[in-house]
Amino acid sequence: MHPFNLQPMEITSAKYVISSATYKQCPAPDRPEYAFIGRSNVGKSSLINMICNQRGLAKTSSTPGKTQLINHFEVGGKSQTRWFLVDLPGYGYATVSHKARNNWSNIIESYIRKRENLVCLFVLIDSRHDPQQIDLDFINQLGEWQIPFVLVFTKADKNKPAVTPRNVNAFLSALSDQWEVPPPYFVTSAVEKTGRKEILDYINDLNKGFRKL
Ligand SMILES: Nc1nc2c(ncn2[C@@H]2O[C@H](COP(=O)(O)OP(=O)(O)OP(=O)(O)O)[C@@H](O)[C@H]2O)c(=O)[nH]1
Ligand SMILES: [Mg+2]
To answer: Mean of the pLDDT values across residues 156-182?
Structure first.
């Protein structure tokens, strides 16, 4: 193995590209793309900032429903493929109207199913809670659509040590009704910056397999 392969992947630049109302407006699908999805307020935008080491790159808020539209960020490192990181609006935001929710579903469904360079979807789950039906339903839907995904259990800093593994196991066990093999997962804290290297290494590996379509 080349010794450089032992170096962790480091990001040297991350910049906002564009916000799109539909997948058709997204940038040319000429590089690998990873999108973050999950319930409103689960910490998608915060995790993007943590990964890119740039506070304020993706807009965060303590009020759910902050991220609207499909937000593309271009990320790159020294002598590495450039790739897109995508911040998506959250699901399960109770106070939005039925119409707005349908609109969200349509936008997200077509983005997820039609975006040709989407290599992997990162589904964020709040590590503080028992398995939530809305997350399980969304993941089972991904199975029907055959979309590659991994799980990210967020906000681990808010838990006492035993709670995160307990909730992770409960979630994987709830999935085992529908899934023979559990998906890969990561545990993160945007506050303590944990889980960053693991996610970047995973993305770096997938980048190597990306072929221009
Ligand atoms: N303690 C702690 N708080 C976090 C973490 N990640 C996010 N938060 C907080 O959770 C709230 C929501 O974070 P966002 O990153 O805006 O969540 P989002 O999933 O992008 O939300 P929407 O765009 O509304 O769907 C903010 O107040 C963040 O500061 C974390 O790892 N630890
Ligand atoms: Mg957000």
So the answer is: 96
Q: Cβ of 31: how many Cβ atoms within 10 Å?
A: 18
What is the 124 CA–ligand 1 centroid distance (Å)?
11
**Does the beta carbon of 55 sit less than 6 angstroms from any atom of ligand 1?**
no
Query: What's the CA-to-centroid distance between 107 and ligand 1, angstroms?
Result: 22
Q: Is the pTM of this model over 0.85?
A: yes
Q: Is any atom of ligand 1 closer than 6 Å to the C-beta of 90?
A: yes
- What tokens does 1 get? 């193995």
Domains annotated for the chain, with CATH where assigned, are: 3-209 (3.40.50.300)
Q: What pLDDT score was predicted for residue 213?
A: 55
User: Measuring CA to CA, which residue among 199, 210, 197 is closest to residue 8?
Assistant: 197
How many angstroms separate the CA atoms of 157 and 188, rounded? 8
Nearest atom, ligand 1, residue 89 CA? 25
The model's confidence at residue 167, banded by pLDDT at 50, 70 and 90, is: very high
Query: Is 133 or 101 the better-scoring residue by pLDDT?
Result: 133
Which ligand 1 atom lies nearest to the CA of residue 40?
A: 25
